[in-house]
Amino acid sequence: MLQAIQHYIGWRNWAVFRYNSVFENFFVLLIIALLQQAFHWNFVLRSLVFILFSILATTYGYLINDYSDRELDRQHGKPNTFEKDSAVKARMVLLGVLLLFVVAGIPFWNQPYFLPLIALWFMITTFYSLPPIRLKERGALNIVFVAMAQRLLPILILFSAFDFWEAKYVLPISVYVLLRGLSSDINHQLEDYKNDVKTGTRTFAVSMGYQRVEKLLNVNLHLEKIMLAVLLVQFSLDLRFSAIVLNGLWRFTAALYFLALFWFMLDKRQWQANPFDVQSRSLSQFLHHAYPSVGLPLMLNVILSILYFPFTLLLIFQIVIRRLYSPETISGNFLVRFLIQKLGGK
């Protein structure tokens, strides 16, 4: 049983935690808690259930893609979760994950728009890869579908699950998540460009051309950074804490991003760095991933844990999935490396 969980849910070294819109943008859940002042057990427990629901939904999305791409992945020489399974076994696994995903979502069924959003997500996710519709090969349109299924809809489902529909937050957060997701999805297609050309797979990048899409990626990365700055300003105007230490923690967290963004704007060498090159640990990678996915939610979670101790459960969850207990993870952080270099006089 544990081996099956490791293989199908923990595929590719538990990528379900890395390539998951809810976990990539975990700060959204925590901002909702702060803005709603949801300092009670019900919110914490619902958060844990939603995390499980998100894991199962993401697993279904990636498994249906692997199931549909078995032959294509074999031609590309890429690993596939079902490469050693029969078609019947693969379908049974998919059905099992789908049923678990449905059951995990039951506590949220009565929330406004939840079921319609889930139905839309399921249709796009399933037919994005599955023949004969196979939206991923619909040329320029496929990037729209992948951005909706993997980025925008999961965040809208999160808003629905916690009945958070304040337009002044929902709209800019949705735009930021969409821009950030587009950066990731476009980069992924650029990485697969040569293989997709060889196999005649009509992705967005293949249809539009490598150079044009690469320029689009660079523009999108800049827009994404600007949008996060707008969000941080908005949160700073609305978040007020009675304790001085909490105000100080938040101001430090927001200021850190603006200092990094200012440095990035001045140093054009950083513009050439690919934020998806994890090994580079560049400033670009910090602004795109490390800050919004790790630093920001971690500090928000610390503030929430001070306000209401049970939020420590979510803090522990973040520490575990991000492996922040590992000296290698900490020492590899861009800011830590920068400080070591400066203090060492290099």
Q: What's the SSE blueprint?
A:
Elements: H1 2-8, H2 11-18, H3 21-24, H4 27-36, H5 41-68, H6 70-76, H7 87-104, H8 114-129, H9 142-161, H10 167-191, H11 193-199, H12 204-208, H13 210-238, H14 244-266, H15 283-307, H16 312-321, H17 327-331, H18 334-343
Quick tags:
mainly alpha, 346 residues
Describe the fold and architecture:
The model has no long low-confidence stretch (mean pLDDT 86). Helices cover 74% and strands 0% of the residues. It is mainly alpha-helical and 346 residues long. The radius of gyration is 20 Å and the shape is globular. Helix 13 runs antiparallel to helix 14 (244-266). It is built from 18 helices and no strands.
Q: Report low-confidence residues grouped into runs of 5 or more.
A: none
Sheet-strand content, in percent, reads: under 5%
- Mean pLDDT across all residues, rounded? 86
Count of beta strands: 0
User: C-alpha Rg, in Å?
Assistant: 20 Å
> What percent of the residues sit in helical stretches (DSSP H or I)?
over 70%
* Biggest sheet record: none
Distance between the termini: 51 Å
Q: Label the overall shape.
A: globular
Task: Output the structural class.
Answer: mainly alpha
Give a brief outline of the structure.
This protein has 346 residues and is mainly α. The protein is 74% helix and 0% strand. The protein has 18 helices and no strands.
